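SEQUENCE AND FOLD
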Amino acid sequence: MPEEIAEQIELWNGRVVWPRRGPSEHQTFTNLMWSALRRCAQTDLPDRPERCWRVTTETNVFLGKSGKSDFLTPDFLIHRCLDQPYQDLRAADTLLVGEVLSPSNTQSDIEAKKGRYAGAGIPWYWEVTLERENSAIAIVHAYALETTHGQLPPGVHPLYPANYLLTGKWTPKDSDAIAIDFPFPIHIPWSELEF
């Protein structure tokens, strides 16, 4: 597939999906999240030299162990450093994926993407919801992957083998910063996410 087409699509089980591109605020807040998470990853590195994290934006994450017919392109992500440059990024290498949600995102699209990330085994999923009236972040949700399920009645089985559970929620009105210790210590003052 030509590169100029491949960079504009996602493949869902071999089916081409043309994701909507959000308004300019979408890219701005994606870049601000990238910058803040990158700073946190670099701060963690000297304390744990055995770790190597890379933070990037809009990079294809291939969901299978091999092949290229199933991938998503999160707005921002954190992955382990790869052995060589220009390797395909697999879900197994990915620690955190994040989506910046603008008013044009539908709930069904959001849930479908979240379910696919969970099914691929990506440990952390973040949603950054933008305000509708102002160029600002309204709320950030952090979800952790859950691969076991609670006690269910006999004969009842979960529809999906993995799902995300909400583990963090921050708004500029309720907190000074986004702060969580996983997948490494993250502390992002709201001032870093303003423009």
